[in-house]
Known about the structure:
Helix content is 15%, strand content 58%. The protein has helices at 2-48, 55-58, and strands at residues 63-74, 77-89, 95-107, 110-123, 129-139, 144-153, 158-168, 179-188, 193-205, 211-216, 218-222, 228-238, 241-253, 258-271, 275-285, 290-294, 298-301, 304-307, 310-314, 319-323, 326-328.
Amino acid sequence: MKNIKNLIFVVLLGFLFVEVLIVFPSKLEIEDDKSLRSRVAKQEEKIKNKKLFDDDASKLSDQRMGGVHLVESQQGLRDWELFAKSAEGSQASGTWKLHQVRVLFYNKDKVEFTVVGDHGSIDAKSKDLSILGNVSTQSENGYIFQTSSIFYSSQKREILSPSLVTMTSPKDVSGESLILKGRKMLVLVDQSKMFINADVAARKLMKNGLAFDVAASSAEFSGKNKEAKFSGKVVIGYDKMQLEGPTAAFLFDGDADKLSSVLVDGGVKVTGADKSAVSKSVTLDLLANKYIFRGSPKVTQNEDELTGEEIIFLEGGKKVRIEKARAKLENRK
């Protein structure tokens, strides 16, 4: 009987030993695994809130995240600030794809341009950006450029678009916005200047019912004022006249927020219903309703020819005033 009791004791002691060495460590492993998963989940949540270019994030492949907010700086100043609904990418590709993108481009820590679009991408090394689909670029003073895509060079701080661009100027009290179509948009962020460098066609309807129709090789605009410059075989139609010259500028009265004059310069040819003219420059003074020809002007009406140092058409061309006039009139019997 005593031997049986000893045997039972040994067996129970063996079971207890097995449970301590095998079963209990198994429970510890399960608990450690839960703790590990919890820590990983917390770490992944932290990574979602970091920049795409943080070291921890760059170690992950095929990463996806939502609510992206990135800030890129150069020489201690903000270059751009990006917001996107979501992003995905990998360290191997070095490129991050973005969805529903908005980018603020800075000049001396002030926002100069805002770009929005359906999709985009970032080169993780160069910090260059591409934005595609219903892209709108807006300057701080209200110029809006709509195109299908833009590319931003971080090194040059330039926004480029080779495709068709539709531009709407800021409104002013003289009439409707200037509406322009063209190609090859270039935006210089540091200089706050915008260029359309091919196939420019523009129209501005005035309050008096007349309209400016402009064709040119290129156009330039500023994010600091409303002045518009056109160059390269400029042709302007206005009030039954056609003006042709190398350059033209739409100048504004800043205090009145009104288009005050249009200057065509560099050797100008003017044709109208009953007259033609040539001169170095022509100014259409819209506030005074007069047209001023300067620089060896010569006006031909029917077969009469007027020359002088300066020729001014008053009341929209109904009257003429000539400074130091010289007239060559047709001989009439």
